[in-house]
């Protein structure tokens, strides 16, 4: 986000470059002295994301080509060191892109008042979100999702999709897409490209709030209240929400397994249906206090709860090679449980003597606990040889706790360059406790083949540095290097096995921009990323899958290394903004499966490092106003993916496929009070696991009516033609499989949104901006603090370094 140019030019001062190392060493030493305290701190929750002071300087040195929207006479209320509120009027422009990322403003999305974070992400170019909440970017499912630049336990692991579907869209200000993350970003959550959710924040003096209430089809509903009050040195913000929602589904499954030795086949079919709407609720709050003109502290807290209740019915049949039915039964699965997320943190910002000089320390803790109770009842018509018990139960208790402590120092030099230094210590402690019982009458009997407890304690320690400078009037550059050490302590509690693993990685990154003219920019970027193995890939316990298969993890897996390259062309195509990007991604030491024959009837599947995957493609976006009433936002992505895998005999197998996705948003102002939005999303064939996913397309409609200046009516209809489905196909020499799953995509919501307070709203709020008009970079907090509360999962707005 950019400020007016006048706020981004360094001024001369008595501070010299020779003083900088001494000051930076002092700041970093102060932070590092608290490292062990941070790593063992109690659950203080996740704090505010960093307010990116460097964003303005980055924009100044590498002017983006996307046409900015002019903001005339924006007025912000800010707190001075005396506790009085000063009003600063500025002239400026809101920039869309920065040297290392694309920024998408989602506040104007008509559906944001009654949608979820998953809905918002699904509208971002080249981002795909399936009905379960699984996210991919440019066909890559290894996506890191941050909240205000920081990781959150609730967006890790299997619960991420459901949490995205629970998080209110109303809390989100913008989405930052970082395809090649730089040195300041860590590798948690998969280490892939980053989607950063920048949460809304407010800096206005006085109080304001908004109330949303929505009712949907089949008894769905959601409501949220958000507000803030700012006076003098203090800023307070918070909100609560409730949501009753979910996605019922039906499924069709057909699998044929072929014996490679004899050619004999076995066919299995399954039809299923699952239903269950769950209750979700949460709250958040943040308090900011300006200690002085140069020091600001903040504390924040967030809580979220979600149910895991559902009922599923399935009919399974298995046929032998002669067509004889060998299994036929009905299974009923009743699921109950809940998911609990807590987060909070503390933050201190200190502004130095030099314009733009800033030191930040940030401590946050987040936890996620998920308890699931699955009860299975089988009614056999034809009982198979290796039949499950008539009644069984699976209990899953997963716990994740992340302690994240970072320090960042930023120093603008006299020549206009910017130096950044930072450190990070993060502990990620997880436990995965799975217990399986078969019932003999009313007595539960533990099934040792499926019962195990696995614990992983992961510590990541990192140092990074970056240097940004302006080579000429047309060229700008940013280079960075990150050193990251990972140590793993793994305990397979059930078998009494303890294993350690550690490794050090050097992670470079580089960016450059070239300004062809006032309307056109070229962008170049490179970054290396790491993708660490998940708990399921590390757990050495040998798990029973069925009578023919077992699986086991590998605790000595190393991270996958990914080198990403990108070239972008940004210009003005008539009255529209146009972007074209070419990209290439190369994965080394990929984690792939290896199958080995244990005995005459059993195959063991495990994991190993080896081989590589490659992907590349072209991405375009086209947006702007076609007429005073009609605006468009379209994007497309042509992707080519190549994967190396091992077959049953251990031979290398290469899979490859192109994929095309297109999406478009049309916004039409029917009247000054009425707005209609049409969204089209089409996804081509994509590789998925050992197979591929078939194409699909959807159409969504949204309508907003401004009844008064404070009250609005919003109507959404998702998947108008009920065409959304997930169909995957596997076709190999030993396995032919087709799996179709249809979800409740066709859902309607109608709601009201009421805004109150904030008399200076039209003049005092500059959406998405930090500290316009401040002499010394971003404000130390002012009303609303250094970014305000970060919503559920993370801390204040700003989306700064993610370490």
Outline of this structure?
The chain is mostly beta strands and 803 residues long.
Written description of the protein model:
This protein is mostly beta strands and 803 residues long. It has one domain: Beta Barrel (Maltoporin, Chain A), CATH 2.40.170. It has 7 helices and 43 strands. The longest helix is centred in the first third of the chain and has 14 residues, at 19-32. 43% of the residues are buried. Residues 1-25, 32-95 and 759-803 have low confidence and may be disordered. It is a multi-pass membrane protein.
Strand content is: over 45%
Q: Which outline best applies?
A: globular
The CATH homologous superfamily is termed: TonB-dependent receptor, beta-barrel domain
Content-based structural category: mainly beta
**Radius of gyration from the alpha-carbon trace, in angstroms:** 27 Å
CATH class (first level) name:
Mainly Beta
What is the average per-residue confidence, as pLDDT, rounded to a whole number? Answer: 79
CATH topology: Maltoporin, Chain A
Q: Sheet with the most strands? A: 22 strands, antiparallel, barrel
- The helical percent reads under 10%
Distance between the termini: 19 Å
Low-pLDDT parts are 1-25, 32-95, 759-803
Number of helices: 7
Q: Structurally, how many domains make up the residues?
A: 1
Query: From the 3D coordinates, which CATH architecture would you assign?
Result: Beta Barrel
**Total number of strands:** 43
